[in-house]
Fold:
Amino acid sequence: MTLLPTRCYASPVNTPNSLILRLRAALALCALLFIGACAHEPQQRRDSAWHAAFAAADGNGDEQLDAAELRAGFAAYKDDFAAIDTDGNGLISEAELRSYITWQQVLRRAPGRDLQAP
Structure:
């Protein structure tokens, strides 16, 4: 005696609807990847512009600013040298300056401005 299944199930892999769903999912993924790539591009431009401004201020090319280079290249922050120089070595790295300027921007946007500067 041969047992036959009482119901026949179609494999979801072979149905036309599943192929359409897969294509839609693939298109949605491509769209998300494209949007993500486009959104990342302005950040790269800002980073390169920031690096170019720092490099222009770095007169001796040592990738750090002394007090005179800070005054010449970033005059708005000439009085903040000690606050920017977080490691106290007498030189300001690009990371120190960028961190300080970002923190100052946060303070300006803070509601109530009750945050304290470093």
Summary: The longest strand covers residues 64-65. The chain has four helices and two strands. The helical segments are 16-57, 67-73, 81-84, 94-109. The mean pLDDT is 77.
